[in-house]
Amino acid sequence: MPIKAVLFDFDGTLADTLPLSFDAFRRVFETYENVTLSDEQITAKFGPTEDDIIRLNVSDASKAPAAIADYYAFYENHFHERVSMPRDIVHMLEALNELDVRMVIITGKSRRALDVSLNKLDIRKYFCFSVSGDEVERPKPDPEGISAALKKLGVSKEDAIFVGDSSADIKAGKSAGLWTIGAHWFETVQTTQFSPEPDDVLTNVRDLTELVRQSRTDTDR
């Protein structure tokens, strides 16, 4: 079947934003909890949005609003010095767009953090829409966001693939019945060893474009 839609995770899949997120969280927890967390310790808290991660882990609830504000201030103010848009990702998005592939972002990030990222990287134009972590009741690894996106697109699960860098992404994609792609083209990813295993693991973003193009070629034969 030709691939008609590609659903993407965001952090570590479309943009190398994880190091910035780690540093923003680290600053918050150093300031409000007097503890320095490793990248692995921060990753273990992922699932909820940035706001909820902070609310759940700041012991003095009255300080949570200030901690959340500090997180976003750090994330936005340091974005351009920490994050750039790789040309190979842009080329992939442009190629998929030329193939009339419909693209959607399904992320655990908050709408606020996602909008900052999309605006600064100027890639919103490539996507039909996006689903953030605070727009679903059950974030990944639950397939809620993926299933809702397919319904909105009017695309069957057989005609779509899901691409992500974490085990939660792969579990969500499989639970929704999609072919899953583990993205390992950035140096910093959430998961180095997937569980469950994705249907394929790609270390070069150009291979994703070729996979989609090949699905069209095979159908035409």
Q: What is the radius of gyration computed over CA atoms, rounded to a whole number of angstroms? A: 17 Å
Number of domains as seen in the coordinates: 2
Question: Which segments are poorly predicted (pLDDT under 50) over 5 or more consecutive residues?
Answer: none
Topology order in helix (H) and strand (E) letters:
EHHHHHHEHEHEHEEH
At a glance:
The chain is α/β, with parallel strands linked by helices.
Description:
The chain has 221 residues and is an alpha/beta fold. It folds into two domains: 5-16 and 84-220, HAD superfamily/HAD-like (Rossmann fold), CATH 3.40.50.1000; 18-81. Helices cover 48% and strands 11% of the residues. The chain has helices at residues 18-33, 39-43, 50-57, 64-77, 79-82, 87-98, 111-121, 144-153, 167-175, 205-220, and strands spanning 5-8, 102-106, 129-131, 160-164, 179-183, 200-202. Strands 3-2-1-4-5-6 form a six-stranded parallel sheet, sandwiched between helices. It is globular and about 55 Å long.
Chart the SSEs and their pairings.
Layout lengths: L4 E4 L9 H16 L5 H5 L6 H8 L6 H14 L1 H4 L4 H12 L3 E5 L4 H11 L7 E3 L12 H10 L6 E5 L2 H9 L3 E5 L16 E3 L2 H16 L1
Which labels suit this protein?
221 residues, alpha/beta, Rossmann fold, 10 helices, 6 strands, globular
